[in-house]
Amino acid sequence: MPRQTPWQTTGPFLHFGLPWKGAADLAGDSDLGSRPDLVADGHDYAIARNHSGRSKIGGERIELTGHVWDNTGAPVLDALLEIWQANAAGRYASHEDDRTDLTLDEKFIGYGRCALDAQGGFHFRTIRPGRVPGPGNSLQAPHIALGIIGPGFLKRLSTRIYFAGTPENEDDPILNLVPEMRRQTLLGRSEPGSNIFRFDIRLGGERETVFFDI
Amino acid sequence: MADPLPYLRDDNKVQPPLKCEEFRASVVRAPTQALVRIPHTLTETTGPSGHGVWEKLMGPAVTDLTRQHKGEPLGERIVLSGRVLDENDRPVPNVMIEILQANSCGRYVHGYDQHDAPLDPNFTGAGRVISDAEGHYRFVTIKPGAYPWYNDWNSWRPSHIHFSLVGPAFANRLVTQMYFPGDPLFPLDAIANAVPKDARHLLVCRFDKATTAPFWALSYQFDFVLRGRAATPMVH
Asked: Taking the model in full, what pTM does it have?
C-alpha cells in the first residue's frame, strides 16, 4: 500500500496563490482574506475574486477576529488560517453529510482562508453554524474547525472555535476531552450584543491554545 | 446518523515532527503542550465537495503556468503530472491541488522575497487544478531555480514546488513540497530533512520520458498519497 506523502511547510511566499480575494468572507462579497499588497504588480491572477451573491445566504452573520502569537509571545505575521464549518442548519456542504432533511444553501460552502494582516490579525465574516452530530448519538455544540499553516509550521495546527456563553458547550463531546482548565482557550468571546467574536491563538504561555491531534 | 468512518492517523514514520531544531523557524512555532487527540466526527470527515464547488470558490483552473501572460516565460518548460491516491491505493477525485513556485531564477513574485535574482514578467508561478475521477492531475510549468534563504549561514533551497491539497475531509489536508531527482542541495535541505530519513524519497518526483511532450517539454511524475479511511470504525 502507498505511504502518506510527508507534510512540508508552506514557506513565507504563500500570498500570491493561496489566499484569494474574498477567501475570508464566507457570507458576503468583500475581498477579505487576501494580501494583494504582497504580490508583485501584474501577478495577481491567482487570487482574483470569483464569487458573488452571497448576501442571500441564510443565518446569523458573525465575525471572527484575533491574533496569533508564537511560543515566545511574539506575533506571527505571515501565517494562513483556514476554517471549515456547517451552515446555519448544521449541515456540511459535503457529500459525506447525507442528512437530506437539513437544507443546503447553494451559496454557502463553509470553507474559508485568511492571510494574517500586517499586524498579525485575522478577520473572517461568516454565519453562526448549527449543531452537528458527535460520537454515538451525541450532538456537538456549534463550532468551527480551524487550521493554521505557514512558514515555520512543519504541519498544520488544528483547533476549533466554540462560542462562549452557549449552553450546549457543557455537554460537547470534544470539549469534554480537553482538561477543564484549558477549555476556555477554545471559546470565541463577544461583547454583549455584539456579533464579533474574538479568538486569540497562542502557541505557548499560560493561555496556550489547545491544538488537536486529528 | 451512524458515526462516520474515521481516517487513519498521521504516519509518524513518514510525517515530520512539529518542531525540528535544524529548521530554525519551526522552533518558536510549535505548541509547547501535547496535542489533544480527538475522535473523527463529521467535522473532520467532511470537506467541500460537489460538482464545481472549487470553481465557485476560487475561480477556474489554471493548469498551464507558461500561458498566463503576454509572452512566454524563460526557463526549462516541464510537464508535471500524476495522481492523488489514498493510503488504501484508491484514487481520490475532486481534490483541489494548488501549486506555488519560484521562477527559473529562483525568485518569487512576493514582496518578502529579497533574493537578488530577476522577476520574469511572464511568469507568476501559481496554479490550481482539480483531480479528475481517477485522481489524475497535470500542470505545465517552468522548472524553478534554487535560491538562498536564512536558516544557517549560506543555506540554499533545492529546486522545489509547493503544493496544497484540499481533499474530501478536513482530516486529510496536505501541504507539501516536491523536489527533483538528483539535486545536490536536497540532502542538505533542513526542511526536507525534517522528514524521517527513510521517507524523504517520497518528496522527490520521477523523471518520466514516456509522458514528455516530444520536441517541446520534459516530464516529471509525482503521486500524492492522502490519509485513507480506517478499515473499520474505531471504538471511541
From this structure: 0.97
Mean pLDDT per 10-residue run, chain A (214 residues)?
A: 97 97 96 96 92 88 98 98 98 95 93 97 98 96 98 98 97 98 98 97 97 98
pLDDT band for B131, please (50, 70, 90 cuts): very high
Q: Is the dihedral of CA B100, B92, A111, A52 positive or negative?
A: positive
Q: Which of B16, B44, B49 sits opposite A6 (nearest CB)?
A: B16
Q: Is B94 left (phi over 0), alpha (psi -120 to 50) or beta?
A: left
CA distance A168 to A157: 25
**Cell numbers describing residue B182:** 538528483
- Of chain B, the end-to-end C-alpha distance in Å amounts to 16
Residue A1's Cβ-count burial label (10 Å; 0-12, 13-18, 19+) is: exposed
Quote the Cα angle for A206-A162-B9, to 5°: 80
Sign of CA dihedral A206, A211, B1, B5: negative
Would the CB atoms of B87 and A2 count as touching at under 8 Å? yes
What is the identity of the amino acid at A2?
P
Nearest to B122 by CA among B111, B113, B109: B109
**What b/e sequence results for B131-152 when a residue is b if at least 16 CB atoms lie within 10 Å of its CB, and e otherwise?**
beeebebebbbbbbbbbebebe
In the numeric block, which cell numbers belong to residue B160?
522545489
Residues pairing with A123 in the sheet: A65
Question: Do residues B39 and A213 touch, judged by C-beta distance below 8 A?
Answer: no
B3/A214 touch (CB, cutoff 8 Å), yes or no = no
Record the cell numbers describing residue A177, joined without a space. 476531552
Whether B139 contacts chain A with CB within 8 A: no
With CA atoms as reference, the chain A residue closest to B30 would be A203
> Cβ of B153: how many Cβ atoms within 10 Å?
5
Compute how many other C-beta atoms are within 10 angstroms of the C-beta atom of residue B101.
Answer: 28
Give the percent of chain B with pLDDT over 90: 92
d(CA A42, CA A39) in angstroms, rounded, equals 8
Write out A99-139 in H/E/C secondary structure. CCCCCCCCCCCCEEEEECCCCCEEEEEEECCCCCECCCCCE
Q: Retrieve residue A161's grid coordinates.
A: 472555535
